[in-house]
Amino acid sequence: MSLGGYIFYLALIMLIPLWAQMRVKSTYKQFLKQPLQSGVTGAQVADFIMKQNGVHNVRIEMVDGLMSDHYDPVNKVVRLSREVYQGSTISSAAIAAHEIGHVIQDATDYKMMRVRHSLVPVVNITSNLSFPLLLGGFLFGALGLAQLGVIMMLGAVVFQLITLPVEFDASKRAMAQLTSHGIVTATEETGARKVLNAAAWTYVAATLVAVAELIRLALIVFMPREE
């Protein structure tokens, strides 16, 4: 790869996730200013949807940090950021419903979520080892070491690929719950969908970057150019 091509590549893999993050934050903030007609908070949305789906063993907690919302399947806790937990807006309802989408996946034994969860310990190990192996391989001219580093990277890429259907499915479940239970009105539905779609693009961007970097490094270490 030429110097110009390499600079273009670096700019691309930095700009894609940056664009996705800017999009989700701007969309989130836009609909964080638009109150729900129903007046329910994100915490109430989460609690209501869980009860409607027969889930009674998951706690809801408030945490600090913008867009720090997540579901912890190990401890059975949905953690919602302050803006989502206390807020009564289109964004707070959409994000809360998305996290409960993961709760429903867990309760219904959604296969892709189980696969992703089972990969976490392996990916934690391979991700921590891949960069030192690559760096050591390049510094000491140990091609086998660098190749092993790329193979270790594969685990993280597979994890990213599996994450996509899990996140899209959670958003699909969220919209179904929001609309079927009348939590959002017909006019609010468009905004909720925009929030969920923008959030999904952050995962798409991360996956594209991970795949592109894996391919680039694999070409370097498995198909070295003849001098």
UniProtKB/TrEMBL annotation:
It holds the Pfam family Zn_peptidase_2. The chain crosses the membrane at residues 6-24, 119-140, 146-166, 200-223. Keywords: Membrane, Transmembrane, Transmembrane helix. InterPro entries: Zn_peptidase_2. Coiled coil: none annotated. This is Peptidase membrane zinc metallopeptidase putative. It comes from Exiguobacterium sp. (strain ATCC BAA-1283 / AT1b).
